[in-house]
Amino acid sequence: MSRRRQNDDEDETQTKRRRGAPLISDVEKKLQEVIGKVGEKSTGSSITMNLEKLTEFLTDDLDKYRTSIIDIVAGCAIYLPNRVTVYTTLVGLLNAKNFNFGGEVVEKLIAEQQDLLTKQKYQEAQNVAIFLCDLGNSGVLTAQSIGEYLESFISAAFEENMPQVRNDYYIQTVLRCLPWIGKELTEKSPEQMENIVEAVGKYLELRNKNHVTLLQVWSSTDQEQEDYLESLSAQIEQLRALNWTENHIPRYYKDFEAILADALQHNLPSFASPDHSSDMIYPYPLVVFRLFQDSDCSSFSDKPLPGGHSIDRFLFEGEISWIIEKNQFNRKSCARELLAFAEENPSKDAYSGSQIFLREVIEKCRRLGSYEKIIAALPSDFVKIHPCSPDVRYLIDEEDTALVQRAETFTQMFQERQPAEAFLNELKSVDGSEELPYNINEFGLFVMVIDCSAVVAWLFDEKMWAEHNRQWLFEVLNQALEKLTRQINVVEKDIKELTERVENKETDDVKEEEMEADDEKNEKLKQDVDDLENHKEKLERMVTFQKGLFNDFLIAFVEEIKIAGANTSEMDGSGDTAGRQSPKFQWLKGRFCHVLLAHAETLLKHSSSIADEVFTEGADPSVTECFNQFQSLRF
Question: All domains of the chain, ordered by start, with CATH?
Fold first, then answer.
């Protein structure tokens, strides 16, 4: 699971656009197009036939455009995990014709994997590992060297004094590779296969699982909520019992067995894990979220849903997750790919949600449409969960007709979406004789941005506790906290750029052929040094403020949960359930866990001070347990 922020990805993309993309030749564009489309089913011909044609096409230009072809294939291996076997078959066919090509592809992928791990792009690095292992099926790599490669991952997982999340990642990488290469290893290197399975089992026995309870979604239900490594290990065990027979991976290299069997094979180098440092952030552990059980789909589909311990379930769930993540900014493209992924049209059966779910959905619809139309469209049975009418509230003395009329004027202007200049003119048109409690022009209240600390303080004021059973409040809370985190990330990015400039003793805009006078360079360097110091001081203040903000609102949150646990009254006043079993307590505790997970990267940095200041002797034990489970995510 990648934890890189979406905002960071967008910023990086925009920066690259401003700098301009490097120019590539028309031939390279053609190569990208033909190689990128070889696995598409919409070309009108079979993928096997497309691979044959592409192999012939590339063989003719292999010597001339070798580097470009290798780079494109490596990119496909990293960023198109749904077509692994397409490109491993292509590499196998080209390796059969040119032995050196296969070796160079392997060297390129090994270098890319090391670079990806250094940059903490863990999902992409796993894609490379799967691709390398599948090259054993296409006749490029020997089974023994692949076994040694996987054993080196296991050795990295057993290194001493390392965070468990780091070790989990390496074990997960091994398990994810086995559906592709497990059968080949069992047949050609059975001893290595036994060693791998035994080592994985030993690791899982010794592993700390305190985080599982925190991450589980359901309570009081028989729905399976397994730890992700435990689930994947069980799926691999079942696959192994079935002699590695699965129904999801399209193995195109089987159509070329005669060609690939005669190809010379390479040895895959052992994996060398990057050195660990305290600032490295590894993927957090997960609990597998499955909304449907096997029996839920039997009534409307001829094809049964694979069981939770079936490797087919893991494979198609992983591909669906990849499609959604890849298209997270393009819903239309996401829907199109998901429909194409399904072999038949999805069922149109409707599933009803609970009252609280419907209420939240309707309230969100109210933000986007006419209140009257929404109420008219709802069934009469939904009257209990109708949202409140979004009437404008005038927080002024309604007996003062002048101010009421003025408020209505601004309301009309907002509805008409008039430009900012119109509002300024209206504000300046105030008669001098009219006395207002404040000078709106002087203070610029109409453009004031509320500080996130003020938002958090307002949300956790005791007067707002009655609203803490509504989802909107926690949406606002998370947005306010995320805003502060983004501001800190911007300052950290500026510090990194300034540090590089100071260390290199040059600015980004100076070209080597246009050297400036030494005094000008020294002046710019001095300015950069001053800016760097100012940014470091600013960052220190912001981090201190952030730490205090989290401490303050968590103290208030924990106190509210404590009171809810001691109170016998219900959120709706029914009083049917008491204390920690009440829906109010369970709701607040769940929201507390959600806040921890939503801001995990930030909170884990300050977890020691939070534990000392927030979770005192009077804190509710179940909430303290949640925080202890949360701390185990990093270690």
Answer: 24-275 (1.25.40.180), 355-385 (no CATH), 463-508+517-631 (1.20.1050)
